[in-house]
Amino acid sequence: MLDQADDSRSDDTCAIKRLGSDDEERWDDFAKDAPQATFFHRAAWRGIIEHGLGHRCHYLYAQRNGVITGILPLAEIRSRLFGHALISTPFCVYGGVVARDPDSAAQLTHAATILADELHVDYLELRDRELHQTTWPVKDLYVGFRKAIDPDPDKNLKAIPRKQRAMVRKGIAAGLQAHHGGNIAEFYRVYAESVRNLGTPVLSRNYYMRLQRMFGEDCEITVVTHQGQPVAAVMSFYFRDEVHPYYGGSVARGRDLAANDFMYWSVMQRAVERGARLFDFGRSKQDSGSYHFKKHWGFEPRPLHYSYHLVRAKTVPNISPTNNKYSLFIKAWQRLPLPVSCALGPWLARDLG
Questions:
Q1: Range 15-141+305-321: architecture per CATH
Q2: How far is Cα 271 from Cα 281, in angstroms, rounded to an integer?
Q3: Annotation: CATH topology of 150-276+335-349
Q4: Taking the mean position of all CA atoms in its chain, how far away is CA 26?
Q5: Mean pLDDT of the chain
Q6: What is the DSSP string of 279-322?
Q7: Is the pTM of this model over 0.90?
């Protein structure tokens, strides 16, 4: 399937290769310059998923005349509970093929389907922002929220609809303070409680430490405190001129303080200081609480096109919390003591790509 060295090919033939450690810089240079690429196309995710979560990766790239013309990050999730899948990219909201030309895109997609068939996975999933696979089944569960931000913070505040802007001011009046460059211990304590309250297993602290170490200044933690105590925290990713607040939440008492609104407003201000011009609020499930929260901030939802090549599976998978068969588990998880959820969570969360 993958061309390692074939002298019979002409120089202008598109060859599909596997990413090696010596290719990572070239891969990232391509991702940095490709308009369709995202933070989640960076090569470092391969090491994070393989070494931090224990899943095998298959990062493919297209090359012509010695130059990379397309990339496709893939990871194989094998779980007794949730099945066997090949995903671009698990634990990330975006993925899929990024290519300079249609032939490179087609060759990468074809290589991925062959790989999925060879691995006998249940399905191949490509998490595209735009619809590319027009003949594949598509899941319409998720939408994305992205909006340009102004260099003037006052204009950004005024752009927030009145009711939600009042929540930001409520947080300011309550004396909330935002601290950028926060530490993992404070972040994890808040975030783990937040996702436990939602009935969701949390990944290990080491996973978030690895993200911070691998991405350096492009990974920033913001901690919001009230009277010196952390009430909200978020880990944000920076890519080109975009900011993506990705892992975030608040403790229970933070809700009465409008801590989440204050936190995201603080991240927006910080992003402007760092030169960002686009705020990516991530994905949300249709008609969920986070969906309505982001709409109230003035962001308009856009469909995310998660496309599927079915191998052993007969239908598009549904391992979302919206699936009724997980409702009892979610309710039970919400009642777990926090130390117990932190101990058990990583074992489950590592398979929920």
A1: 3-Layer(aba) Sandwich (3.40)
A2: 13
A3: Aminopeptidase (3.40.630)
A4: 22
A5: 92
A6: EEEEEEETTSHHHHHHHHTTPPEEE-EEEEEESS-SS----STT
A7: yes
